[in-house]
What does this fold into?
Amino acid sequence: MIHFDRVFKRYPNGRDALSDLSLHLDSGEMVFLTGHSGAGKSSLLKLIALIERPTRGSLIVNGQNVANVSTSKIPAFRRQIGIVFQDHKLLYDRTIYDNVALPLIIAGISAREIGRRVRAALDQVGLLGRENGLPVELSTGEQQRVGIARAVVSKPQILIADEPTGNLDPDLSVEVMNIFRRFNEVGVTVLVASHDVHLLQHFNLRRIRLEGGRVTDDGRDPAIPLFDPGKLIEREGGAR
Amino acid sequence: MSTWLARHLQTLVGSLGRLSKHWLGTTFTVLVIGIALALPACLHLLVVNLERASNDWDRAITLSIYLKQGTSPDAAHRLSERVRQRRDIAQVTLITAEEGLKEFRRRSGFGQAIDALTDNPLPHSLVIRPAADYMDGAHLETLAADLRQLPNVDLVQLDTAWVNRLNAILDTLRRAILATAALLALGVMVIVGNTIRLDIQNRRDEIEVTKLVGGSNAFVRRPFLYAGIWYGLGGGLIAWMVAGGIVAALTAPISRLAGFYDSDFRLVGLGLEPTAILLATGVMLGWLGSFVAATRHLREIEPS
It folds into this structure.
């Protein structure tokens, strides 16, 4: 689904963010991207979303070589990827409904279908019934879930998240990660960048560690299950 | 298709809603555009009304022919019949020397002085009204020249200088309107463009987010284009009201003035077609100004 082949990324200021990076993500995989800040996690995600382009090497996302995606085709390219940001990037002067509906409006979907899908997405993140509120009325964790609903509302095949739990306390972080897992279970390829090693230990998933723009570790660390993620899902479900 | 239409309508109404949220700034922008558009509209009204007034005066154009002293009344009659045959002449009135003297005696009040005269000092004269199709300067000059060639004609008097001058003034005014309109159109585009540029800067975050979730430049630009259209339409309406107000204020005094000149001249306002042109021009300029600004400045905003 996502193939990096000897990719280099050098910024105009001369900083090398990624050097000789090769990486393969299969369709339907869920992968954590770890490493210290500045290791290249954000740059890697920006290349996938075509916010930046590789300096060298080839990157293929969902069968498309990004080198062949012209600037005018970038919007269409991005519509097949759901992106979750650390700072949510919500529109604070619009309702929660309008925020989640934005990708569907862009895609030109009919109003009735939008209503159905927005409610489904909000239901999946546990915010059904809050459509008419404004983002500022929500807690940080809830705002992040609105961001996730917006990322998944158009049913993308790829979901990428950059430090989605950066501003959340541990309980909320696990909850957010579990939301990602549920999307992964229905076939979405998920790539989550996080430096929170303790949080990732709760999940027995592939972990790619970046250091200085290179992959230094790739595999399933023996997970130390502090508690069973399955139970967490149940607990969250019960609370609702 | 219906989704597309509904989306456009929604954006159209949505951009109006956003403008009304910042109603003070919007009002000022629309007022400035309206005043800029009102100026050429009022100049247009001035020219249209001057043209109508001068058409009235054209009908008053006459040529006077004075025959040589000593021409017999019969010769004068023959000449008037001959002139009447010309197709560029609508009406010929012969005023014989005797009739002329009688008229002069009656009107001037110099009765006794005239009675003291042994001879009639007045010549026979013809008053000629040209046909409507031959009322312009060049034709009148030809006609006068032809008439001068006729036998027994002493003097042909044609006062077209003021008609020519008025027409020249009207031509100059028309050019001035075009130049003014072009400059002000540019001004309107700059006003709208600058307003849209500021709006884009204020909504930078929103534009970035929209682009991040796959919004194309055209999609992001659309609300700004509709805002430009609203600005232009609002400005056009203001200009229309200004022109209408000026006409309303001037109608009564001008009718009175015309009354003193025995004219039934009435000021006309902007008709249906000029009004449509004014509003369409406003809409077009608003759209164009925002298109140029939005295309330029939206390209600069890319997520990073």
